[in-house]
Amino acid sequence: MVARLIADRLQTDTYQVEAAEPYPFSYDDTVERNRREQQQDARPALASPPPALEGYDVVLLGSPVWNVGAPMIMHTLLDQWDLRGKTILPFVTYAVSGMGRVAQEYATLAPAATIGEGLAVQGEEAAQATDEVSTWLRRVGPMLQSNR
């Protein structure tokens, strides 16, 4: 939902991160799978290869926050990208922990990238986050101007 709000405002390219083995529809089953993946420092396979990032200076990277961190599938994605010299602007939906440790994880996984200001939207409020998204995009706007 938040990614769609952002993409509509920026009219930008998008890529949906999907696991080759889809996450369960059941909340409890997804929580359990995520817990196992975190304990194992797993790298779930992606359903499709991520796009090349040549020509982009800024990557807006959205995900939910699961157990205070990014889902392990996001670790898979970052492992596959060369983010040297790029800026990552994280945005997340969450239940209770805001941004959690997502920005720190991205900084560890992409040490040659700059992690910019993130946006955290409570999941239940995502459909009504128009003002939050617009305000965030105004704040990070100067960074976005560098994208080709």
Q: What's a quick, concise take on this entry?
A:
This protein has 148 residues and is an alpha/beta fold. It has helices at residues 2-10, 27-39, 72-80, 102-109, 130-144; strands at residues 58-64, 87-94, 114-115, 119-122.
Write up what this structure looks like:
With 148 residues, this protein is α/β, with parallel strands linked by helices. It is 36% helix and 14% strand. The chain has one domain: 3-Layer(aba) Sandwich (Rossmann fold). The chain is built from 5 helices and 4 strands, in the order ααβαβαββα. Helix 3 links the parallel strand 1 and strand 2. Helix 1 packs across helix 5.
N-end to C-end Cα span: 25 Å
Total number of domains: 1
User: What is the CATH class?
Assistant: Alpha Beta
Oligomeric grouping of the chains: single chain
User: What is the C-alpha radius of gyration, as a whole number of Å?
Assistant: 15 Å
Task: Specify the number of helices.
Answer: 5
Secondary structure category: alpha/beta
Tell me roughly what share of residues is in helical segments.
Answer: 25-40%
Instruction: Please name the fourth-level CATH homologous superfamily.
Output: Flavodoxin domain
Show unreliable segments: none
Strand fraction equals 5-15%
User: Which architecture would the CATH scheme give at its second level?
Assistant: 3-Layer(aba) Sandwich
Query: Rough shape?
Result: globular
**What string gives the helices and strands in order?**
HHEHEHEEH
CATH topology: Rossmann fold
Q: Let me know the number of strands.
A: 4
Instruction: Let me know the largest β-sheet.
Output: 4 strands, parallel
| Averaged pLDDT | 94
